[in-house]
Amino acid sequence: MTVPTPSDRHVPVMLDRVVALLAPALQHPGAVLVDATLGLGGHSEAFLERCPEAHLIGLDRDPAALRLAGERLAPYAGRTTFVHAVYDELPRVLDELDVPAIDGILFDLGVSSMQLDEADRGFAYAQDAPLDMRMDSTAPTTAADILNTYSAADLARILFQYGEEKFSRKIADRIVRAREAEPFTNSARLSELVRDAIPQAARRTGGHPAKRTFQALRIEVNGELEVLRRALPAAVASLALHGRIVVMSYHSLEDRITKQTLAAGAKSDVPDDLPVIPAGHEPFLKLLTRGAERPTEDEVAANPRAASARVRAATRVREKGLVA
Question: pLDDT confidence of 119, banded at 50, 70, 90?
């Protein structure tokens, strides 16, 4: 049997559009691109090929992803640096690498194709696997730990906030009752419990009934939204003048944080009714996308995982004035 290579396993989402948004900032000698969510390296491969003067710093919290991306990007070994880090650690990484500013940064958020495809990682609700869901396999807390230790109130909170699950309290109560008989270890049992907890009429739309619960658990396990809230301002602060940021999100919670962060930088930090904006208080970002851009129908047909993608981008137009 032929073992699939990283390029076989990974179809980068909205590749041409992402490259078009970032490439103008990467065409000069010494340009630095950060791929904050390296994954299997599909987007980075395209940048290294199409931006021959750029150097890539690839971050990922998943050691397996770093290894596979390193294999894929081996032809560009002289222009790549790989770091095992979560993307909110960007300031530390740049300081340790003695990089004062970057010209482009890409965030491709959510769970990677590799993590979805490897059943034993426990991300997919449609196949039975250990309830793990850690993007970094060295992290201490798994989805099973959360299911077996959180109170009903805390479980309901994360299901409602992170999964936007209308039946969060009912599902949480059933989880707490079920774990008294036997702790949760595998995804099939949780998936069945969620399906049974949701009224039959509500199961007819919206995809798999356990989708929102699994999303919420994954976000909680990996602290995804808290990390993103720290990472985006740090990424903007690290941009050189005319540097660009592109963020690709896959659900409304990520997109809302992205929209708010970029919009804040694209407006002045003085009151709206002030007739003249004082020097040094002009917006420091310019939005490059009108709202959130979506994949084309053809791309979704070719790559169903692209269906929920939303892309926002901005460029730095002023060096000073970032409000902490």
Answer: low
